[in-house]
């Protein structure tokens, strides 16, 4: 009976250890080179953090700390191996000149992803220049008509609270 109890305890500890290792992996965008100054292009570091999270076998968190992060047109694509949470404690900002987005038609695009949740933060698309051009009746470049796009994506959730703002 003592051997059974020892075996049971050992097996239980092994299971608990395995479950704790299966916990969420966290990928901080700063670790991948993002700069929280609102001026340095952080598009590639965000894509590297996304790629690491997307290829992870365990649930993952892409973490965006406080600060402002300049992102040009960016595509977060899947399919991914497990669920991903994007936790934004800072602000994502588009280029001041909307023409920098080209004719992409989007600023931030999630495509072919499942089980993705986005929480917190502020998305500032800096749309004043685009809308001023459109209002003037001039022939304006297309730029990004949509700030946040979802394409062929299932189970994507956005959590907008009183502290979250979407500026276009």
Automatic annotation (TrEMBL):
- This chain belongs to the protein called Rhamnogalacturonase A/B/Epimerase-like pectate lyase domain-containing protein
What organism is listed for this UniProt entry? Salix suchowensis
The lineage is: Eukaryota, Viridiplantae, Streptophyta, Embryophyta, Tracheophyta
> What Pfam family is a match, any one?
Pect-lyase_RHGA_epim
Keyword Zinc-finger attached: no
Domain named Rhamnogalacturonase A/B/Epimerase-like pectate lyase: residues: 27-90
Give the signal sequence positions. 1-22
- Mostly located where? secreted
Q: Does the keyword Ribosomal protein apply?
A: no
Q: Provide the alphabetized UniProt keywords.
A: Cell wall, Cell wall biogenesis/degradation, Secreted, Signal
